[in-house]
Design brief:
Layout: E1 8-9, E2 12-20, E3 25-32, E4 38-43, E5 49-56, H1 65-72, H2 85-92, E6 95-98, E7 101-102, E8 106-113, H3 116-131, H4 137-143, E9 146-148, E10 157-159, H5 161-170, H6 173-185, H7 207-217, E11 223-229, H8 233-244, E12 266-274, E13 288-295, H9 302-316, H10 322-329, E14 335-342, E15 349-357, H11 362-379, H12 383-395, H13 413-417, E16 422-430
Parallel strand pairs: 4-11, 13-16
Antiparallel strand pairs: 1-2, 2-3, 3-4, 5-8, 5-11, 6-8, 7-8, 9-10, 12-16, 13-15, 14-15
Bound molecules: zinc ion (ZN).
Length: about 450
């Protein structure tokens, strides 16, 4: 650490300063003295200014409380009392990015703009939204769930923005395979729940529980703040302190515990609605999907994180990648399934498989994946095939894939919910490789 300025400014204590030559930035890490909020401030000459505020929001059920809260805080706040300030912003602001995402254990509100006044306006709206939302019972019903009755003798039905969105998600086989793969690997901790909300459990959520979840989690003591760009570094501290100063420090227990390892691999089978129209006369139905899923060890250093991303790219990042090629060339399925590496969890997961499988070939697919990985671990990977992949993985990190974003939420459900489908199977084989990061060789 080299502290080159006064270590306290606008209520923030500078804990560490470091030059990051790779991105031509100076990084300053602060803690807000009054509340404990953490701030990472990246200072550089990039006109693409970025701000973010994030909270640890691990759920303890599948009511979708974190997701419904993410939607609800965007529906008006103490200072901005219009119905949908974010929709208004999207129409009028010069923002280059404006969104919010709910992850399995956190909720993030990032925003970006090239215009400094617009940037400050956006930050003001964001901070007011997360710390002082209106959160009325009507907003909860609109964004979460409510009953609707379309005729006096018709049955009561559930509606709600998140309820409808998640009904759409739950009618997508690919989304469900990913969701069930994750839940299966972490049955004892928060990742065993659906932070987005399971439509079966969303109606269990009450308005009071939503309010309590906000009070417990959307507090500066549980906040991580982020700045990037060429705006005035001192002004960042000043405008944050003006909002955070309204709070006193509290204790927030939002740490995700470690999932204990299984003592033996687990094999799970789930079903999903599949389309009769996809079946050919006289042909077996190839609607089965299978993934083999590993929970990896917690990654606490940058080198291992980069190695895992590189390894993922080498194994499945391109058609010539050995695991990708082995699965497709086998002819056992129609396309890859599984999300690959998900390193946004405390203990990351790796998930790979095939979809469009004849159910009789499920065992063969599982064995092919295990044999291919064992063979690569034993013999090494031929680097001539993977060099472009290695370079790509190092240069270009993936964009987050699991966030749920409000601007697209109203477009998602309709098309997915209309497909005519009948029963088929998802097959998930759950394995427990003791230490994925150290077993394969050749990178
Ligand atoms: Zn949503």
């Amino acid at each position: 650490m080299t502290a080159t300025q006064s270590t306290a400014s606008h209520g923030f204590e500078l804990l560490r300063e470091q030059n990051l030559a790779e991105i031509n930035s100076t990084a300053r890490f602060y803690r807000h003295g009054r509340t404990g909020a953490e701030l990472l401030s990246l200072i550089n000459s990039d006109e693409n200014k970025v701000f973010g505020v994030s909270f640890a929001t691990p759920p303890s059920d599948s009511t979708g409380v974190a997701h419904i809260l993410e939607h609800s805080v965007l529906c008006g706040s103490r200072k901005y009392q219009v119905k949908e300030p974010f929709v208004e912003l999207m129409k009028s602001s010069l923002s280059t990015f404006l969104n919010a995402m709910t992850y399995p254990d956190k909720t993030c509100y990032p925003v970006a703009s090239q215009n400094v006044q617009d940037f400050y306006n956006l930050i003001d709206v964001y901070l007011d939204a997360v710390f002082f939302p209106r959160l009325t019972p009507q907003i909860f019903q609109q964004e979460g769930w409510h009953y609707e009755l379309h005729a006096p003798d018709a049955p009561l039905i559930y509606k709600g923005v998140v309820f409808n969105e998640m009904k759409g998600n739950y009618s997508s086989p690919d989304t469900m395979l990913l969701e069930l793969s994750q839940r299966s690997l972490y049955p004892d901790i928060t990742y065993g729940f659906d932070s987005g909300g399971d439509p079966k459990h969303i109606p269990d959520l009450t308005y009071e529980q939503l309010k309590a979840f906000h009070e417990q989690h959307y507090h500066p003591s549980n906040a991580k703040l982020f700045f990037y760009g060429d705006d005035d570094p001192d002004e960042r501290l000043r405008l944050l302190d003006r909002r955070l100063g309204e709070f006193n420090r509290i204790t927030v227990d939002a740490k995700v515990p470690l999932q204990p390892r299984f003592t033996a691999p687990r094999r799970l089978i789930h079903t999903y609605p599949a389309g009769q129209a996809d079946e050919q006369a006289g042909e077996p139905a190839k609607e089965t999907m299978l993934t083999v899923n590993w929970m990896l060890d917690e990654v606490i250093d940058v080198e291992t994180a980069l190695a895992l991303n590189t390894l993922e790219h080498i194994l499945i990042g391109m058609p010539a990648a050995p695991l990708y090629k082995a699965l497709i060339d086998s002819g056992l399925g129609e396309a890859l399934a599984g999300g690959g590496l998900d390193d946004e969890l405390r203990q990351p997961m790796f998930s790979i498989g095939l979809k469009g499988i004849d159910p009789v070939n499920v065992g063969k697919v599982g064995r092919l994946i295990a044999d291919t990985i064992s063979s690569l671990a034993e013999k090494g990977i031929v680097c001539g095939h993977c060099d472009p992949g290695c370079t790509g993985a190092i240069r270009c990190r993936r964009l987050p894939s699991s966030g749920r974003s409000p601007p697209s939420r109203r477009r998602l459900p309709a098309t997915r919910a209309t497909s005519k489908r009948c029963s088929s199977a998802i097959s998930s084989i759950i394995d427990t490789a003791p230490n994925w990061s150290s077993s394969p060789t050749g990178i």
